[in-house]
Design a protein that fits this description.
Length: 340
């Protein structure tokens, strides 16, 4: 089976022929139909973060496909089931995080396409308990971006406890941000979308954003304050300065939800203003299996649109370059057989 492999950080990925992986106990083998290109995969391929993967590895944590082979002990899935394989590839199920609904914080977790091979391949393994069933009516191509971009932004809005009539700032209208705008609108909020390209700001308007802010020309904090300040700001821009900019536009009691992970990023949080204004800074990482089930349910009900374009896996390096140049309208999804 073909796979796109990171052989060394910062080097182009290499398309290689690998033997079909054999599922171990509790695992399944999936014939991948579609696999989204999350900016995280670029961070992974570049070794951007303090905790690094170990090359060679196959990135990809928005893989969706059909169960092809069951490992020993797997009884709740059948051959032919369509499943998605998210970042949270496995959690222990026993620790305080897993037992209190926060499996995404499990310290034993294994991350797909980072700690184990992921979905940039024709076949992949998944732990059956974390292979998320894709409902009827949701295509593999559309389920792919929902598997990370969707669940992550849906969770970020839950973490922000967004209420109707609040003002939510979405900083970065890319793969994640285009869905964050939609979830914020579903939550009843007024949405201010921030980006640095005309195309992304236009996309945000098409998806329901009430206000758009061009961070190249406008003072993000001042514009937000002109609307009374944001109750919540979801930081999805791969740009360190964007975090401080949107934090400065919070309303008293507002929350900055940090999601994006620019390499070596830090944020200066002014102590006095933070205390005086009662604002908070929260980190948010992906979402649980339950969150993902809710994301799929919303999409199956026609409540969300996935904006994506399909590409062959062979275009992986050019696709990464286009994402880095900000030239992709929302999400690239590698088509590994979705149409067949
Ligand atoms: N915390 C998590 O669980 C989690 C999950 C998924 C992705 N991520 C991270 O989120 C980030 C975004 O991922 P993505 O796939 O949406 O990336 P993307 O490249 O598709 O989108 C990033 C967007 O940020 C915009 N942008 C760049 N500079 C900006 C600025 N100064 N102000 C406003 N917008 C700006 C770009 O134009 C683009 O639209 C990445 O760092 C990724 O690793 C985190
Ligand atoms: C800390 C890494 C979080 C990445 C989530 C999947 O994009
Ligand atoms: Zn991701
Ligand atoms: Zn655990």
């Amino acid at each position: 089976m073909k796979a796109a492999v990171v052989r060394a950080f910062g080097e182009p990925l290499v398309i290689e022929e690998h033997p079909d992986p054999e599922p171990g106990p509790g695992q399944v083998r999936i014939r991948v139909e579609a696999s989204g290109l999350c900016h995280t995969d670029i961070h992974a391929a570049h070794g951007d973060w303090p905790v690094k993967p170990n090359p060679p590895f196959v990135p990809g944590h928005e893989g969706v496909g059909l169960v092809e082979k069951l490992g020993a002990g797997v009884t709740h899935l059948s051959v032919g089931d369509r499943v998605a394989v998210p970042w949270l590839g496995r959690a222990c199920g026993r620790c305080e995080h897993c037992l209190s609904g926060w499996e995404t914080l499990c310290e034993q977790q294994i991350n797909t396409g980072y700690g184990c091979d992921g979905g940039y391949a024709e076949k992949m393994l998944a732990w059956a308990d974390f292979a998320q069933p894709v409902p009827e009516g949701v295509s593999a191509v559309e389920a792919a971006p929902l598997t990370c971009a969707g669940v992550t932004t849906y969770k970020a809005l839950k973490v922000a406890d967004v209420r109707p009539a609040q003002l939510v700032a979405v900083s970065g209208v890319g793969g994640l941000g285009h869905l964050a705008v939609q979830y914020a609108k579903i939550a009843g909020a007024t949405v201010a979308a921030i980006d640095v390209t005309d195309e992304k700001l236009e996309l945000a308007r098409e998806l329901g954003a009430d206000i758009t802010i061009d961070a190249r020309k406008e003072d993000v904090g001042e514009v937000l304050k002109g609307h009374g300040g944001a109750h919540a700001a979801i930081a999805l821009a791969v740009n360190e300065a964007a975090f401080g900019a949107v934090n400065s536009g919070l309303r008293r009691g507002g929350k900055l939800v940090m999601v994006a992970l620019p390499a070596h990023g830090t944020i200066q949080v002014p102590i006095f203003d933070t205390v005086l204004n009662g604002t908070s800074v929260i980190g948010s990482i992906v979402g649980t299996r339950q969150d993902l089930a809710e994301v799929f349910r919303l999409h199956a009900a026609g409540r969300t649109k996935v904006i994506c374009e399909t590409r062959p896996l062979a275009s992986v390096n050019e696709s990464i370059d286009e994402v880095l140049r900000g030239q992709v309208k929302a999400r690239i999804v590698f088509d590994l057989g979705a149409g067949r």
